[in-house]
Each structure stands twice: as structure tokens, then as C-alpha cells.
Sequence to fold (135 residues):
Amino acid sequence: MEFLQENIIWVAIACVSGGMLLWPLVAGGNVAHLTPAEATLMMNREDALVLDVRETGEWSSGHITGARHITLGQLDKRLSELDKFKEKPIIVVCATGNRSSSACGQLKKHGFGKVYSLGGGVSSWRDANLPLTTK
Fold:
């Protein structure tokens, strides 16, 4: 007990860093992250669905052609719209990859098996000079 009292800062740092390591398992489970090139291959070869979970303003500023838009906040309410895609690969996209990991976790909990996150989100897509549309 004396050790804990004398080293409370180090104990706190250890607890926080341990929590940060465990957070991805709690928040989204093991989510596979794809590069833009891997995502493009999956879209072309396996007819993967692209699901954009960004907010409407972000979506309007440019999104991947053919993507379906359901904001992260609406995902639970609108899961039935995705039921027909349960056996297809789904690539979830957000701005930088954080929200898409959370969405992947939600989809997995509801029985979607082939769920992937676009690592780096639309930012990495844009950095790879791949096209976005506003239509």
C-alpha cells in the first residue's frame, strides 16, 4: 500500500495506458482496416458495399461514388436497410477512421460478418488521389 501512495502518478499512468490499449477491444472489437487500394480491390472484385457514416454536411462535401449514407447516430435505427448486405463485404467510411471502427463494432454485433473500416477514412482516400463525388 505504501508503494501505491508513494508512486500514485506512475500507477495512474499505468492504469490509463492499459485502458487505452483495451479500448479498441471494448469499443469496436477487432476491426480490419483497409487501405484505399485494398478497399478499391474489394469494391471491384467482391462488389463490396461502401457505407459512409459521416454527418450530412461531411457527406455533401464529397463521398465515394456509390456509397450508401447512414450517419453513425442513425445506424442502429436503420440497420434493417442493410439486412440484404449481410453476406457481402461492407467497407465503413468516416472522415479519419474513428467513427467507422465504432460502426463496424455495431454491425458485427448485429450479425454482419464481413465488415471492414477504411483506415484513415475519406482523408486517406483523398490522399491516394481517388475520386469523390458530390452527386
User: Anything to note?
Assistant: The mean pLDDT is 89. The first helix runs from residue 2 to 6. Helices lie at 2-6, 8-27, 36-46, 56-60, 98-109, 121-127.
